[in-house]
Write a structure and sequence with these properties.
The complex is a heterodimer of chains A (108) and B (120).
Chain A lengths: L8 E4 L5 E6 L9 E5 L6 E4 L13 E6 L2 E6 L8 E8 L6 E3 L3 E5 L1
Parallel strand pairs in A: 1-9
Antiparallel strand pairs in A: 2-6, 3-4, 3-7, 5-6, 7-8, 7-9
Chain B lengths: L2 E5 L3 E2 L5 E8 L8 E7 L6 E7 L2 E5 L7 E6 L4 E6 L8 E9 L5 E5 L3 E5 L2
Parallel strand pairs in B: 2-11
Antiparallel strand pairs in B: 1-3, 3-8, 4-5, 4-9, 5-6, 7-8, 9-10, 9-11
The chains are: A mainly beta (108), B mainly beta (120).
Chain lengths: 108, 120
């Protein structure tokens, strides 16, 4: 079965750039999507179609994809960005819809 | 803005049926979008359960072995999920979400989730 791999944790100081990665064999051909989830709250879509930002999402959030790795970049991370971030995509056939295991971002 | 809220029992006995409801506000469930259910077992990654479009199941995760049924009630603007013959492995936080996208379907608006414990 298809899998997306994320590092379990990333830690940065406020104002630094955080880079969260998501690896998957189908990512050269399939879009990646990124979600922010804080404890007990609904997940929030922060990036879709690899690099597009929904309205209302701060400009410091950006996405990119190269080869088998998609990256969520938070430029000038703020304390309120501390959350779990998980990626989503599909396998090459589109039949398997999978989420990454999530990365816990710590900003302190 | 679309808002979703899951509701249902927090405890279900093994072998019984888990039934959850997702109440949608700010958008009609009969108006052109997909609606889906997802779950996240403790310590594990999110799993896509099923998706429905205009009353027809569009996607069903084969890992549930046909135990999941998704439906819509347009009169109440709700989306429901029933999972039969549950075991402890079905213990999870269950989320509902609106699903969009033509090339790759993806959830855009989510509920905050409801914890369901399968235990005797």
């Amino acid at each position: 079965s298809y899998e997306l791999t994320q590092p379990p944790s990333v830690s940065v100081s406020p104002g630094q750039t955080a880079r969260l990665t998501c690896s998957g064999d189908a990512l050269p051909k399939k879009y990646a999507f990124w979600y922010q989830q804080k404890s007990g709250q609904a997940p929030i879509l922060v990036i879709y179609d690899d690099s597009k930002r929904p309205s209302g999402i701060p400009e410091r959030f950006s996405g990119s994809s190269s080869g088998t790795v998609a990256t969520l970049t938070i430029s000038g991370a703020q304390v309120e960005d501390e959350a779990d971030y998980f990626c989503y995509s599909t396998d090459n056939s589109g039949n398997e819809r999978v989420f990454g295991g999530g990365t816990k971002l710590t900003v302190l | 803005q679309v808002q979703l809220q899951e509701s249902g029992p927090g405890l279900v006995r093994p072998s019984e049926t888990l039934s959850l409801t997702c109440s949608v506000s700010g958008y009609s469930v009969s108006s052109g979008y997909y609606w889906g259910w997802f779950r996240q077992p403790p310590g594990k990654r999110l799993e896509w359960i099923a998706t429905i479009y205009q009353g027809l199941t569009n996607y069903e995760n084969p890992s549930l072995k046909s135990r999941a049924i998704i439906s819509v009630d347009t009169s109440k603007n709700q989306v429901s999920l029933h999972v039969s013959s549950v075991t402890a492995a079905d213990t999870a936080v269950y989320f509902c979400a609106r699903v969009i996208g033509t090339v790759t379907p993806y959830p855009d608006y989510w509920g905050q989730g409801i914890l369901v414990d399968v235990s005797s």
